[in-house]
Amino acid sequence: MFTEGFARLSHHVYWHRKTQFALDRDSSALWTLFAVVEGRFAYGIDRFEGDAGFGDLVLCPPGTWFYRKVLEPLTFHFFQFRWDSNSPALEGEAPLWIGKRQLADTKRLSSDFAYLQRLPASGRNEESIRAYKQHLLNDLWRMAGIEKEEIRPEIAVHHSTDPRIQQAREFLLVNAYTRVNMSGLAATIGLSPVQLTRGFRSAYSMTPSEFLTARRLERAERLLVETSFSIDRIAQLCGYENGFYLSRLFSRIRGVSPSAYRRFHRI
């Protein structure tokens, strides 16, 4: 269940096309959140590591080392905040996740980013500015919570699902838009590639590769309609190396080219 609570903003900075971090690691007494607008960076937080780009929120809890390295010139919103839970027993605990969370609603995300960029860093109405920023921070938080609780019929879990298969599904959800080695995933959860494929198909009526492709094409559809990004850029944001491969795959599975899909859905 999503934990009810409220993020109380302490600090916000908007960084534009940052090429490197002053420190390759840092820790804070506050919660730290990176919301990526453009570019990519590698991160390591406790046992969680990977890379993040547009649509990703990366969260580090208080008192934890946050390792980071810019991979592509990085534009992002940096937040530090305290967490107030409605439940005294949960106060100060991680209410949702540690590491990366990918947001599907890129249209609303882009809207929040646009409002944040319009607000000045400071001014005579500093308390009002902070209140607006705090509202937008909590909107990002709520989006992540709502999407985490969403149940999609095509990926409904069977009661008899092997916990290792559920672990594989969670991994694919978190890492859907990065390079995924299915053999490596199978080995990590203690299964052979054949066992992983059979178990996944039994639980979710599709193979792990089909599940991954479905997630990626869903994101590609949203980006085609909600942004003006090139096909190559959308391919990168969906976990593919180039737009040529994405175009072939999209056309084969959706029955229409990405450019035609964009044109039809923008009328």
From TrEMBL:
- Start and end residues of each HTH araC/xylS-type domain: 166-264
Alphabetically ordered keywords of this record:
DNA-binding, Transcription, Transcription regulation
Q: Write down the superkingdom of origin.
A: Bacteria
Carries keyword DNA-binding? yes
Q: Which Pfam families match?
A: HTH_18
Concerning PANTHER family, the annotation shows:
HTH-TYPE TRANSCRIPTIONAL ACTIVATOR RHAS-RELATED
Q: What is this protein called?
A: Helix-turn-helix domain-containing protein
